[in-house]
């Protein structure tokens, strides 16, 4: 489910927030490799949970097709509000779950697919809703470039996201 935080609501401390479910791989690598893997996982988690922003929306298994010649890949979509900005973030599940090997994590192509989109750069949003297939959202930047489409699963998730987005865009 999504949560809408108004400016009057209190912010939960980061220690009270649930973890994103990043699993620690047991490896026989050195302690420096273990520290790198832990810091990489901490970084991925901090993309979606931190004390500087309010999480307005979060949904796993939102599909993104990074390139035309690729299959769509599932990931975690979140919408964040800070004191002066509204930002959309999407991270492939492969990075969120920590399923990649420790040495593969840094050079993984999946880092190239992650999205961080400030809404100050967006001028147009295209939505396509199909009741039996979920919905698709396309963001268009000020320079006219379309971001990769976000495919929401069936069940009203696109509408929930748009509701949270609308609330985040309201003047404070």
UniProtKB/TrEMBL annotation:
It comes from the Eukaryota. Residues 55-171 form the Small G protein signalling modulator 1/2 Rab-binding domain. Residues 1-36 are annotated as: Disordered. One of its GO terms (molecular function) is GTPase activator activity. The keyword Transmembrane helix does not apply. InterPro entries: SGSM1/2, SGSM1/2_RBD. Keywords: GTPase activation. This is Small G protein signalling modulator 1/2 Rab-binding domain-containing protein. It comes from Micrurus spixii (Amazon coral snake).
């Amino acid at each position: 489910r999504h949560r809408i935080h108004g400016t009057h609501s209190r912010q939960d401390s980061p220690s009270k927030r649930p973890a994103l479910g990043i699993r620690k791989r047991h490896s026989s690598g050195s302690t420096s490799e273990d520290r790198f893997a832990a810091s990489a996982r901490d970084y991925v988690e901090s993309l979606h949970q931190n004390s500087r922003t309010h999480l307005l929306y979060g949904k796993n298994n939102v599909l993104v097709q990074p390139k035309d010649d690729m299959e769509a890949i599932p990931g975690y979509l979140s919408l964040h509000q800070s004191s002066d900005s509204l930002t959309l973030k999407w991270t492939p599940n492969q990075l969120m779950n920590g399923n990649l090997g420790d040495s593969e994590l840094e050079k993984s192509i999946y880092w190239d697919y992650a999205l961080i989109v400030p809404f100050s750069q967006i001028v147009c949003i295209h939505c396509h809703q199909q009741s039996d297939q979920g919905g698709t959202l396309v963001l268009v930047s000020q320079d006219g470039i379309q971001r990769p489409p976000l495919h929401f699963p069936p069940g009203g998730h696109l509408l929930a996201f748009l509701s949270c987005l609308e609330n985040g865009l309201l003047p404070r």
